[in-house]
Amino acid sequence: MPDTQYDVIAIGNAIVDVMAPCSDAKIAELGMNRGGMTLVDEAEAAALYAAMGPAREISGGSAANTLAGLAALGDRCAFIGQVADDQLGAVFAHDIRAGGIDFAVEARAGEPSTARCLIFVSPDGQRTMNTFLGASQFLPAGSIDEGAIAAAKVLYLEGYLWDPAEPRAAMRRAIDAAKAAGRQVAFTLSDGFVIARHGDDFRALIAAGMIDILFANEAELAAMTGESDFEAGVSALAPQVPVLVVTRGEHGAVALAGGERAQVAAEPVAKVVDTTGAGDLFAAGFLHGHVRGWGLASALRTGAIAAAEVIGHYGARTEADLKALVAAKLG
Amino acid sequence: MPDTQYDVIAIGNAIVDVMAPCSDAKIAELGMNRGGMTLVDEAEAAALYAAMGPAREISGGSAANTLAGLAALGDRCAFIGQVADDQLGAVFAHDIRAGGIDFAVEARAGEPSTARCLIFVSPDGQRTMNTFLGASQFLPAGSIDEGAIAAAKVLYLEGYLWDPAEPRAAMRRAIDAAKAAGRQVAFTLSDGFVIARHGDDFRALIAAGMIDILFANEAELAAMTGESDFEAGVSALAPQVPVLVVTRGEHGAVALAGGERAQVAAEPVAKVVDTTGAGDLFAAGFLHGHVRGWGLASALRTGAIAAAEVIGHYGARTEADLKALVAAKLG
Questions:
Q1: Which of residues 156-185 of B touch A (CB under 8 A)?
Q2: What was the ipTM of the complex prediction?
Q3: Class of residue A129 by CB neighbours under 10 A (exposed 0-12, middle 13-18, buried 19+)
């Protein structure tokens, strides 16, 4: 196998998060599903924004958050996603490139605008997300640089982006390119609604051996397997994928690969401020260990450390020196 | 005097802050003046932004930060400032209105874009600011609602905005409206460069009795008076204004009014993350006490509490429930 240019190349939504604290009473009053992710159109986004308190804007997007964590850990990364040619698109592109991540997709002219995720953060840190996908859902298949994908150890895909048709076609092309080059494909299931709509696609990809590393949380595991019992779900899914990682929030995470199973407790956090990005950063930490050939236990622990850092402040991009933090904690 | 509609109405720059941590070595390498504020044009702003790490966007602007603090403390506020008709302008307008502050100035079409302040935050929390004033410097005199100004207890003006000609004319009109209605005018000197360019204007306004409350930090006091000794500066300036407030960073602040003098120590802070907005929030706390008729000591203490809150996190807008915080600390 030739040398690789990237450790991880990812395809995901190019989103700027707009975040404000919010009481649970107000979340209920606004008819939002606490803890969930809801797709909204531009008019709904405008109405929710008007109801939102003073906010801050921080680049987000699930796979982009994961890459930002990987780059902070010292991995070589590239991102593929679609912004519009507007100020928030410039913000997203700046932040991803300033993190040392290659990002070559040109901004898209005209409407719609760059994707935004309105995030209402409860006093306990739980986040309730409302996403206007905007330009992000128009990522064209032509944006896929097959050479770059063939030159990356892992292709990481965000399930959220399987929903709109154009990026789905782009991701299928990317999977083919990765597998043709003998690379690994990692996939995060992202949300129950994605599985409800596209679970058959995912099951077919898994059956065809196209997914090497699968990330899920407990709810997604249940949605994928139809098993409400955690262990039954794990037993059903683990034999189908080379590596399965299931995150369980405050209960830590479990990983299974080649008949081996490891688990990790959640890393202690002084105060949970905002859980946005917890799963994304867990994936970053795990993939960091994976591409370095660490065992399951160390990869899981790195995921737990990265997730703990990101939930201690607003925003899904790490603030601390993640590399130093992991080095200090892993010893 | 008729009932008032507002406690404080303010005229200031309408700016979105773009903030990222930065080493002092990088600040020196970029040729920036650590701790200072430098005006930059759009090309310089773009070059600095390209050199900046992953950032977050939080509404700023000196007087707007002060109003956000006052509104959080329960005061009735209105803001006058100019944004462009673009995404960052919408962000600024949303954040100010979401804080409960009236803001009626229409966004300005076309170039330049909404003002941005690129803030490089040193490991010790010191901020180094580079401001692209954009639309903010084109606040027209016609934007001054003289009825609203006559209906506010205090008109608060930001010295930064004295520099560009159009807002200066607007502020002169506002001062006349406030004084004609028997209202108080508060003024913050903002920065040494403003005093270097417009000190004679400020001295003339003071001599004409147009400034009732003057805010300065130590460097601004020295620039205004030509006295490098703090006490000499205070002795020179205090007799000229009904209320003088001088902030001294970690050394607290002093206020003088009607022959009385009070001082306050800086409020302890667990960790200084970002000093952006410290002076603005100090002014908010002081004005809050002032419009309620509190004594100098309580007003100063409220300023110190508000300033301590804002330097404990990124951004110049408070995150904590400032009203509850002040109530708990003042007892």
A1: none
A2: 0.94
A3: buried
